[in-house]
Write the structure tokens for this entry.
Amino acid sequence: MQKTPNRKQKRRKPKPELKWQTGAWERFANVQFTLPYQFLLLCRLADVTPKTILIDFMDNLSCGCWNREGRDAAKEHLINYFIAHGYGQEHYTEADIREIFKEMDAVGLLFPRESNGKMVGRYAQWRDQHQNWWFKKWFRKTRRQPIKTELR
């Protein structure tokens, strides 16, 4: 049984899966920024916390596997938003970016909804391995010149 750390003990962050997952790309990050006042007002009017909106935004854009029902339209709008801002277009064509999102969504669709915890654990392990393979496949496309220290 693992002890829970007391206040004096510092919790250790999990080790990154890939070497480049540090700094601005750290997975377990504490980010501090100023929320635009209008966004905060809108959140209060809608009676939804800014954290909820930001987490929903990230889950939908990443085509996550849990809580998928009724979110297809929102996902499509976010993909269009991503493309409209030109994110990634210095490395990929718009068709490539749409394919990236289709592949991410396909992995999320495979989530075993009506199964036991053992199957969900197996899925999660497979998903993590697949995502690393998928990332490297897209990162190594001919249009991108990887920095040798970034890859394991």
